[in-house]
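Session log. Operator J.P. requested a structure for one protein chain; no other inputs attached. Running the standard single-chain path with token output.
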Amino acid sequence: MPPNSPQHPTAAELEILHLLWQHGPATVRALNERQNTDREVGYTTTLKLLQIMTDKGLVARDDSERQHVYRAAVAESAAQAQLLTSFVDTAFRGSASQLVLRALGTGAAPSADELAQIRALLDEIEGSSSPLSPDQQ
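Structure written below.
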């Protein structure tokens, strides 16, 4: 990973990032209250995670007010791309096609809408990799 780029978030850190992406900047107390809607998390646990995440470059802290306000320092799409790349590299030896085949072959079948989105993406990929545009072929 290049210097100055954020480190991969853990599952607990990702939970906090999801809250920040969904609701925007928040205090430790507000984040902890949102976490506690799903499961019991101690205030000091949330605070410690945010301190670690600040050190890792995952969140930024505004300490200009009495209560510190935290915001995500990484975009959701960038974090997803980074995590997915790492996952594909480690679990599928860099093969995105193996990931897709496994995902489509495991669990419930994709919905008609999901299949349409997949087809559209494949058409887009095929169109951009073709040396000639359709009207030139």
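Operator note: The chain has six helices and three strands.
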